[in-house]
Amino acid sequence: MHDAAAEHFLDEGLIEAVIRPIKSGKEASVHLCRANPRTTGHEYLALKAYHPLNQRDFRDDGLYRDGEWIKERRIRVALEKKTRFGREVQGGIWVSREWESLRMLGAAAVPVPVPEAIERTDDAILMSYVGDLEIAAPQLRSYVPDDREEAEGLFDQMVHAVESMLFNNVVHGDLSPYNVLVWEGRLTVIDLPQAVDPRKNSHAEAFLRRDLERMGTYFERFGVRAPMGRIASDLWTGWTFADLVPEELRGRV
Q1: What residues in the chain have per-residue pLDDT under 50?
Q2: Which pLDDT belongs to residue 229?
Q3: Pairing relation of β-strands 44-50 and 28-35?
Q4: In sequence order, which residues have a C-beta less than 8 Å from that of residue 9 and are 6 or more positions away?
Q5: Is 202 exposed, middle or buried (0-12, 13-18, 19+ CB in 10 A)?
Q6: CA dihedral over 59, 162, 213, 22, signed as positive or negative
Q7: What is the pLDDT of residue 69?
């Protein structure tokens, strides 16, 4: 992680030290930080620092930007041509999208790392940490349930999380066992820079279906078999119907 990613949060008195790296992915690295409890109310926080632009993968980004209108033509052209300026803009869009998604979903009690109302920078987000000092919560991909009952419980949590996200107008778009953490029997969904708004993005239903099918493949390894295509269709139909019902009546249908 480049020092500048942590410098702002150190200067603002939100963290006291970066303890160690937790993981490094395609787009970012995550680090365990000792938080300043007086300013954050936490002992530890996670700092997600996005890699420099030349190390990020922007393939198929247009699918995720579908439905997003950018007023300034110069920016639209730069994004389409993937110029350096366009990549800088897109990098900022990814951080902003993840930040806003985490804030909104966290406020709605969806199981995601919560930014705790702490500000972000252009290339880093400070958020709640899942784990303890000795070990970070493992990714679902490397977690082996004790038995089928536990696997079924985790499966139910996963479907409920996807449903809760959808009914808060968020489709993850890249959900897989790599993007789910397990800690003390609870799942946490992470990594939402490519999240889409199903009210705007015409690919959202396909993303939802792909997200669920990927997760279904993981759970099949532990004897949990479910009709993921039908579940995706039911969730999409339910979301579509709810969107047509006045908000004050939604709790009655």
Answers
A1: 58, 67, 69, 76-79, 81, 85-86, 117, 244-246, 248-253
A2: 96
A3: antiparallel
A4: 15, 33, 47, 118, 121, 124, 126
A5: exposed
A6: positive
A7: 43
Q: Let me know: does 121 contact 8? Beta carbons within 8 Å.
A: yes
Quick one: pLDDT at residue 65?
52
CA 32 to chain centre: 18
Name which of 242, 238, 240, 170 is nearest 207 in CA terms: 170
Domains of the chain: 3-128 (3.30.200.20), 140-252 (1.10.510.10)
